[in-house]
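Take a look at my tokenised protein here and describe the backbone shape.
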Amino acid sequence: MNSDQHPAVEIDHVSYTYPASGLDAQPVSALQDISFKVDEKTKLGVLGPNGGGKSTLIKLILGIIVPNQGKVKVFGLSPTKARAQGLVGYLPQRIESDLDWPISVEQVVAFGRISKLKPWQRLGKNDLQSIQHAMELVDVLDLANRHIGSLSGGQLQRVMIARAIAGNPKLLVLDEPTVGVDIAGQQRFGKMIETLQSELGLTVIVVTHDMRAIAAMADRIACLSRSLHFHDAPQGLTPGVLAQVFAHDVAGVFGDIHIDAHRADECEDPSHTIRSGCGCDEHDCSDQGENK
């Protein structure tokens, strides 16, 4: 990133507490003094448990809420201004639209473009080209005339991503995009996000509780559970980085731990021989079948 450029996202000493609701309720601290930057054209995975503050972080980046303390900037702007300028695309975890509406896939994707227009403006040639291109990138162009309610879950998700990118955003925020998706599906989804980033020059933030989804889609990772641990891995997610993530995840159970992680084919410890066919350490393996 050049010195005269702003980061895609900058979170500076941000805290957020939800106010008390109900007679005996207490305020709920969701985020405590978190800071990190996301450079343009990188893919950040935010990993954390339910209730760890992931949804709050998304709301702050989208400008839905403002922090109690600290600052949030998106391309150097307030989140609300960045969204108003069409710089941010968003895929929610749950699609709240009424799928019974008599509306086609192409019309749904067009909403992502219409949101950038003034009330008196109509879609022009460039708008229609952007809508078509968005559908092509996520492989739903052949579904353009289908009723939105007739789609499978995977098809609907791709349509909503097309809607999110139809406005040509610079930042794409994905909230739990692979919930209920198997490993092969996560890998396909990760390749699609990689294609979108390459084609459109996107910055991508993936928020999830699933480490497999992070491994498939991100090259940088942050662990969030009210406070934040940031791991910058521009060379990609290495075993060492994932081990640090795991250490944070289990620290609440075992206390601070140290993990030395590396690829199996780079291991110099003869006691760590990998049993062919099962993928586990030979001295720990309980598989007494044929794969020995």
